[in-house]
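Recall the central idea of this unit: under ordinary conditions, the amino acid sequence of a chain determines the structure it adopts. In this exercise we apply that idea directly, starting from the sequence alone.
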Amino acid sequence: MSVEIRVPQLPESVSDATLVAWRKQAGQPVSRDENLADLETDKVVLEVPAPISGVLREIKVQTGTSVKSGELLAVIEEGAAATTTTATTAKTATTATPRAGPAARRVIEENNLVPGSIAASAPGGRITKNDARAAAASAPATPAAAAVAAAAAVPAVPVPAIARAGRAEQRVPMTRLRARIAERLIQAQSTQALLTTFNEVDLTAVQELRARYKDSFEKKHGVKLGFMSFFVKASIEALKRFPVVNASVENNDIIYHEYFDIGVAVSTERGLMVPVLRDADAMSFADIESGIANYAARARTASITIEDLTGGTFSITNGGIFGSLMSTPIANAPQSAILGMHKIQQRPIVMNDQIVIRPMMYLAVTYDHRIIDGREAVQFLVTIKDCLEDPGRLLLGV
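Accordingly, the structure predicted from this sequence is:
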């Protein structure tokens, strides 16, 4: 019996998807629930599981094609047998090949790596792009590569610039996520009057608090006590005092949100994602840390959902994990503001007429000047600074 494989029902906010990779080829055997293909939407990668076991008889849509919900992708012949060679090859690939995302697969293919020999670091034994790069860097050189290296060791004879090699170009289409990010950023800059204000915060008290309780916190809650929970809590306190920073613009109206859905930016191989902590004001420090860790793991293994990324009233992004000392983040429209965290750096400051060394961080808040005045933005940032320099304020609400 033949069974048609169709594009699954896409989320309501997604009109179409791009078929980025076939995980099986025509003539290969497939097992029930085995992933047949990867579909990339504006935000997430969806898998197309096999509803039955059999043989993939025919592929109807080629890689790179845009598809819609319900569109025919392929046909499986239930209970059919593939050729011995194909079946053996497929079985070996299925049992020996760990899962890898699109970016990781590209590195694997370009460097002729054997997926089964790569140490996977992501949950579920999934190979990340960094795993593949590490394997490529440690792999022995191929004969061709050795020849190139040997040639490179020979002193080069100057040649005219017109004969110089190595100026190849490669045209690669944007992924749907990257194109969507570009669209959103341009939209934000063209529809909002964005302005950024800066301050700096002394994180001595936060660091001491973390050092004092990090072991007992992790033992009790099963998650590490990071900096982000402090910044989320401090931001919520500041948003309560300055509600317009938690608002958004719709036509000529200002919509004040009486809830606090905080987006936390997560960097992945496919691009930046901003999953949302719903009702973050009702969450404990442990809830926030667990939520962020869960989102980060799911985002990096392409298992995050559209619902996780939808909405949000305010966002926080941390460029400091990459070494950024200062930046001007762009608001995640239709949100009206975003907080930028940066690298913690030991710097000399003056306290009580004495020069002391303190762990300092520059803070930035980018805001929509159409509805948020500079006075409100500056006081909002000062409130965050005060809460972080005296974390007791977060517990007492003062």
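The chain has a mean pLDDT of 84.
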